Amino acid sequence: MNLHADDISINTFIGPGSVISGDIRGNGFMRVDGDIDGNLETNGSIIISEKARIRGNVTSKAAIIGGIVIGDVCASESVRLLTSSAVIGDIVTRRIQIEDKVIFQGHCIAVDDESSFNEKTERFLDEKAVRSKVIH
After folding, report:
1. Buried b (16+ CB within 10 A) or exposed e, 26-58
2. What's CA 11's distance to the chain center, in Å?
3. Which of 14, 27, 38, 135 could form a disulfide with 34 if both were Cys (CB 3.0 to 4.6 A apart)?
4. Using CA atoms, how far apart are residues 24 and 44, in angstroms rounded to an integer?
5. Are 56 and 73 in contact (CB under 8 A)?
6. Residues of the chain whose pLDDT is less than 70?
């Protein structure tokens, strides 16, 4: 993950022991050490620590995941899965790095070209929406 001026300070911090039920939308750099039952969205980068557990979708510019995510991860720049991480869901990004011993169950779309990425992301999300309506 490349650090930008906006990434120098953490704009949103969800500390260890915190339990949040509901969607969270923030701006800038975000760090999660607690539990979230809901979607998480930021226009900046996000760190999901090894202590964090998220049941919901994660949307950001870049994501470093060390904890558990049960949901989809969509990061317009990059995703890095640390050794301690588990992701049960799909990942859509331009670049992905997966360390040893990661648990990942889902599909991954990683396309470096921005226009192809945007096109494939839109198509993937449309297909996923159709599948979820057909299944339910």
Report:
1. bebbbbbbbbbeebbbbebbbbbbebbbbbbbb
2. 17
3. 14
4. 13
5. no
6. 1-8, 134-136
